[in-house]
Amino acid sequence: MNYGLGFDDSGQEGDSIMEIAGVKLVVNAESYPYVDGVEIDYKETGMMGGFTIQNPNATATCGCGSSFRTALTRGKREKCD
């Protein structure tokens, strides 16, 4: 199962909606256990910038940096994107 980070104009029924520092974050009910407690920050270094995500739920990460596993999904192999 692939849970992606993206931009959307609206939420759906059952979504959790939070507003932090003027930024609205919408998380669907399926994804919430995977991102509960996550810290998202925007950092600029030199001529580059981007989001950094610190996820205390991740027990293992993929070498590509795009995938992670939690205690809930331990032992379930999934394709690394």
UniProtKB/TrEMBL annotation:
Record domain Core: where: 2-65
Signal peptide per UniProt: none
One term of GO molecular function: 2 iron, 2 sulfur cluster binding
Any Pfam family matching the protein: Fe-S_biosyn
Alphabetized InterPro entries for the sequence: ATAP (IPR016092), ATAP_core_dom (IPR000361), FeS_cluster_insertion_CS (IPR017870), HesB-like_dom_sf (IPR035903), IscA_plant_cyanobact (IPR031108)
GO biological process assignments: iron-sulfur cluster assembly
TM spans (from-to): none
NCBIfam families assigned: iron-sulfur cluster assembly accessory protein (TIGR00049)
PANTHER family in the cross-refs: IRON-SULFUR ASSEMBLY PROTEIN ISCA, CHLOROPLASTIC
Protein name: Iron-sulfur cluster assembly accessory protein
